[in-house]
Design brief:
5 strands; about 350 residues; Alpha-Beta Plaits; 5-stranded mixed β-sheet; 10 helices; alpha+beta
């Protein structure tokens, strides 16, 4: 009986130790899971995109692994997202460019070549904006201002050069893409401001509000019209390029090239001062030449006046009467005759 009781006591002790070990293991597991949850919660609270990124990564599967393997993939993607549409570089054919050119060609027959160039520009979809000609045989000249589509600019210039001997050619470009984009944005904003003013004007209750809102609406519409006019001007310049073609006869003298605006220094200042002096002197001589006929007429009128005044007889001034000696002698004789 004693051995049985000892066996039962040992079994009870073993069962109690096992229960205590299981309890300790459960407490440690709950503490680990709680720590892990507390570590994840602040991360999710601190970065709102973490949960979405985790879901995206779990859904992407292989793509997420590739992104993890390439260190620069995430920064490049973030940079592209921040840049948006503005970060995309425009191609050359998508940019707004103003083409301007001038060409001087020496030809055998100025009139015939001018007619051929006019037909060429018309066939290219353009028109002649200006035509100035001088007919003087071999010294004839013609200056044509041509407007051609931008995509035909180079071809038309080359064809004009092929009409004779190319003496001079100048081509310049101006990129106005940023100006066009800025104008588009300002026009959109200004249209919204105009619509807002119109809505407020429709809700006006008093005369003062009505007058002030009408004035504000007029100002906004004027600003919008100005912006739209600038936009139309840029659209015209970018759609149609300008070519100034100068045609010279075989014996015509080529005009001097335009002066360089970048000249600086003492000689450039001296030249500018001399040009200003000669221009001022020319203006003064022109004024004097215009006044000479009037001065001559004024001088003649003055001479006639002086001559007439000298020829006019001078009036005689009448003085007091002076009695003569005979009058004084005859006075007593009259008195005696009256007495008799």
């Amino acid at each position: 009986m004693g051995s049985v009781r000892r066996g039962r006591a040992l079994a009870a002790l073993a069962a109690g130790g096992l229960a205590a070990a299981l309890a300790l293991a459960g407490c440690s597991a709950s503490e680990d899971s709680g720590a892990a949850g507390s570590a994840v919660a602040p991360a999710a609270a601190g970065d709102g995109n973490s949960g979405r990124d985790a879901v995206d990564m779990s859904q992407a599967g292989g793509e997420g692994k590739v992104a993890e393997q390439v260190p620069g993939a995430a920064p490049e993607a973030a940079k592209a997202q921040e840049g948006g549409a503005g970060g995309v570089e425009l191609q050359v054919d998508q940019r707004q460019i103003i083409y301007t050119g001038s060409i001087m060609v020496r030809v055998d027959n100025v009139e015939r070549t001018a007619a051929e160039i006019t037909s060429l520009v018309t066939g290219a979809g353009g028109f002649v904006g200006g035509d100035k000609r001088t007919d003087d045989g071999g010294r004839s000249e013609a200056v044509l201002t041509l407007r051609v589509p931008a995509n035909r600019f180079t071809a038309v210039v080359d064809e004009i050069a092929g009409k004779g001997t190319d003496d001079r050619r100048e081509i310049s470009t101006q990129d106005v893409t940023e100006d066009v984009v800025d104008l588009d944005a300002r026009i959109t904003t200004q249209r919204a401001r105009v619509e807002s003013a119109r809505r407020l004007l429709a809700q006006a209750k008093t005369i003062n509000d009505l007058v002030s809102l009408e004035n504000e609406l007029g100002k906004r519409e004027a600003d919008l019209a100005s912006l739209e006019g600038k936009k139309r001007r840029l659209d015209d310049l970018t759609a149609l390029s300008t070519i100034t073609a100068t045609l010279l006869g075989p014996e015509a003298q080529a005009p001097a090239p335009p002066p360089d605006d970048d000249d600086t220094g003492f000689l450039a200042g001296l030249k500018a001062g001399w040009n200003a002096f000669t221009a001022t002197l020319g203006v003064a001589l022109t004024v004097v030449g215009a006044l000479v006929p009037w001065l001559v007429l004024a001088g003649l009128a003055l001479l006639v006046f002086v001559y007439v005044r000298r020829r006019r007889p001078r009036p005689v001034l009448a003085g007091p009467a002076i009695p003569t000696q005979a009058t004084a002698v005859d006075e007593p004789v009259r008195e005696d005759a009256e007495k008799d």
